[in-house]
Specification:
By secondary structure, this protein is mainly alpha-helical. The chain folds into two domains: about 30 residues; about 160 residues, no CATH class. Helix content is about 80%, strand content about 0%. The protein contains seven helices and no strands. Helix 5 packs across helix 6. The longest helix has about 60 residues. The termini are far apart.
Length: about 230
């Protein structure tokens, strides 16, 4: 009987000790380390992709701004927009009178006329009229050439501002606009060069025309003298 009691007590003690341990084990959280590692890796990859997409978006925005931002070309080197620099030569309609000397000197031509002029005949003869016209023509051509040269010098003085703007350009659009403006100024310079060459040709032809007129005048006078001699001989 005592043995049975002893066994019963031992069994109860065993149950009382085992029960809290099993209950405690049942309450502990189970951590899946493999799943946690995969979740962390996936989140890291997602963050990296998001950062790449953000960088790509910012680059696209910057590229768009570089390609679309308007550039006011006319505001660059405003001194080059002056008409006397872009086209310093006189209008073609008035060029004939300046070259032939029928138009009196004006502008820069006045300075050269005053420097070179000595005397103007007043007998209204053909030779005197031609002499006055030649003086006007020479002064006019000198004035036109000087004005053209001044225009070239002014353009050369203002071109470095375009070069500086090109060096500080912040976008492709701005670079293209400045290059376009530089090319435009080069076209103006080439046009001036062509005009100067044509003006030289006109001046040479006018000189030849003056010689022709002088020869015709001499021939006319010689014929008049010959006619008078023949009439007197009769």
């Amino acid at each position: 009987m005592r043995l049975i009691r002893t066994v019963s007590v031992v069994a109860l003690l065993s149950l009382s000790v085992a029960w809290p341990i099993d209950r405690a084990v049942a309450q502990m959280a189970v951590v899946d380390h493999a799943n946690l590692a995969q979740t962390t890796l996936a989140a890291s990859r997602a963050l990296s992709e998001l950062q790449q997409l953000t960088a790509q978006y910012n680059q696209l925005v910057a590229t768009y701004q570089m390609l679309t931002n308007p550039v006011d070309v006319a505001s660059m080197a405003t001194g080059l927009n002056v008409s006397t620099i872009q086209n310093p030569l006189p209008n073609v309609a008035g060029l004939d009178g300046l070259i032939t000397g029928q138009s009196i000197p004006a502008g820069a031509g006045v300075t050269f006329y005053n420097q070179n002029h000595i005397y103007s005949p007043t007998d209204n003869s053909a030779a005197s009229t031609q002499l006055i016209a030649s003086g006007n023509s020479i002064a006019n051509l000198q004035g036109i050439a000087t004005t053209n040269l001044q225009s070239i010098q002014q353009r050369l003085a203002l071109l470095p501002s375009l070069q500086a703007a090109l060096g500080g350009a912040q976008s492709i659009t701005e670079i293209n606009a400045i290059n376009g403006r530089i090319q435009l100024e080069a076209n103006y310079a080439q046009a001036q060069q062509a005009q100067a060459q044509n003006l030289t040709v006109l001046a040479l032809e006018q000189e030849a025309s003056d010689r022709q007129r002088a020869q015709e005048e001499h021939a006319k006078e010689a014929n008049a003298i010959a006619d008078q001699y023949r009439q007197g001989a009769q």
